[in-house]
Amino acid sequence: MPEKEEVEKTLPDGSKYSGSFKNGKMHGYGIMSLPNGSSYEGQWSEGLRNGKGTFILPDGTKYEGDYVNGKKNGKGVLISSNGDTYIGDWVDDFPCGQGAYIFSNGDKYIGQCKNDKFHGQGAFKYADGKIYMGQFSEGFMHGEGSLTDSDGKTQEGVWEKGKLKLEKKVPKGNPS
């Protein structure tokens, strides 16, 4: 058997693979169609997704970006079937690091995240015009931050799990 070859084969789980094989494993560029309707097109190494690739789920959800050892790691874009989008860093299949969420309802978040939750410094702009800038933890406004309504009224202080716990008084206007 040659060291590297182009093959089309059906795997034991029913998946169909077309692409490069090396030493009996998917290696190089290839396309895989899974029995559930999902598909992956991109780079492989030692039988795992490695490098640039595109994974599409049956509902139309699409990830395009970096893979390391079979998992989303590095930079990538996920567009969900409902139109929600995440652009940014990935670690072990989860948004983690710096990124931007753009929701189909018009809300937007730019900042740090961990395990697919807002976590660290960030800014959340609501579709109705409100903007929160500050700290997040486990997906909630948590820590120092300020929330400005669309009419310009600002609440500043310490937040706990999405609720203002200790308000700082914000001076109105500039003294002359």
Secondary structure layout plus pairing:
Blueprint: E1 4-10, E2 16-22, E3 25-33, E4 39-45, E5 48-56, E6 62-68, E7 71-79, E8 85-91, E9 94-102, E10 108-114, E11 117-125, E12 131-137, E13 140-148, E14 154-160, E15 163-168
Antiparallel strand pairs: 1-2, 2-3, 3-4, 4-5, 5-6, 6-7, 7-8, 8-9, 9-10, 10-11, 11-12, 12-13, 13-14, 14-15
What does the model show?
The model has no long low-confidence stretch (mean pLDDT 93). It is elongated, with a radius of gyration of 22 Å. The chain folds into two domains: 58 residues, no CATH class; 85 residues, Histone H3 K4-specific methyltransferase SET7/9 N-terminal domain. β13 and β14 form a beta hairpin. With 176 residues, the chain is an all-beta fold. A 15-stranded antiparallel sheet has the order 1-2-3-4-5-6-7-8-9-10-11-12-13-14-15, with no helix packed on it. The chain contains no helices and 15 strands.
